[in-house]
Design a protein that fits this description.
Two copies of one chain form a homodimer. Chain A is an all-alpha fold and about 160 residues long. Helix content of chain A is about 65%, strand content about 0%. The two termini of chain A are about 35 Å apart. The interface between A and B is large, with 48 and 48 residues. The structure holds a DNA duplex (30 and 30 nucleotides).
Chain lengths: ~160, ~160
DNA sequence: TCTTGCGTTAAAGTGAACTTTAAAACAAGA
DNA sequence: TCTTGTTTTAAAGTTCACTTTAACGCAAGA
């Protein structure tokens, strides 16, 4: 089964110019061309695109993804480097998830705050509520947020470099 | 306790020019100035910066964060809009975490694949292993990844706009 | 008093990942 | 064959969030 760039765009949700951009950056060396120079995508190419999206979601830049593609093209001699790359990305994604969980804690607390402020008519009134009168889950959330405090700056879950 | 921009930079890990940039973009309307025009940060300002970092981590752009700051400055009449904003961000962060979990699944599978390829000496050899001979957790992972397949394109956990 | 090291600003530059434009070639149906 | 819609390319433009530069001012210690 062969697909044009328009088909692939529709299937993946990626704009056709983005697919061409990926190709230009060397991310799609396996995509064949018809005799008029028109790209002919296969189902395996869609798999590659899924992998590319996954690596992007894990925080890799285009040039890092190209590096992976290049390694793959080189074959079995690069297994070890690719293996290391995936282990590294796992660590990064775990850090990102931890950071997102902290963010979620903060947002959840704020939702309670604004729910209560909406009910009381003022934000100040909420800030005057003693810890003892807050719902227990909110109190625990506050404590957790306070603990994370120190580590929340000094970017623990960031960094786009290698 | 008052801090210079250098102190705050050190405490937060944010470069001083970044703090000035935030200020210029209207994210720090509450920071006072000394008579030489020098910024005097307070502990409450550090709290604001934490909140800004949190909102950034939740996927808001600078201009959206400014909107939140502006609403806060306007006072209690904007409680409802702020409340809605936080609920919306919670939904977004949950989607992002779900997407990261899928990414993690894929990376975990790939780690197994390259571990095994390293042991066998070739990637092809791994691809020939029948499902029945894979470790159960890997088999389950593969199934989960296959299910996610369809939804993995058509960006379920992205979009930076409103 | 002079130097050093902070602070200030406006403005220009950067890097990443697209996105848009323009001009031309192709492919399929009437 | 002609038309219409899709494809091709190179190149320029866009957006975001900084980052760097340049020129200048204040304040404390030698």
């Amino acid at each position: 089964m062969l697909y044009t760039i328009g088909d692939v765009s529709e299937k993946t949700g990626l704009p056709a110019p983005t697919l061409r951009y990926y190709d230009k950056e060397g991310l799609l060396p396996f995509v064949n061309r018809g005799n008029g120079g028109i790209r002919k995508f296969q189902d395996t190419d869609l798999e590659w695109l899924r992998m590319i999206e996954c690596l992007k979601a894990s925080g890799l830049q285009i040039k890092d993804i190209k590096r992976y593609i290049d390694l793959t093209v080189q074959g079995d001699s690069t297994i070890e480097e690719r293996r290391k790359m995936f282990y590294k990305q796992i660590e990064r994604v775990k850090r990102d998830m931890w950071a997102l969980q902290n963010t979620l804690d903060m947002l959840t607390y704020k939702c309670w705050l604004y729910d209560t402020a909406a009910a009381l008519g003022s934000v100040e009134a909420v800030k005057e509520i003693p810890l003892g009168e807050m719902p227990e889950n909110i109190r625990k959330l506050k404590e957790k947020i306070a603990k994370t405090h120190c580590s929340s700056f000094r970017k623990c879950g960031e960094g786009s470099g290698k």
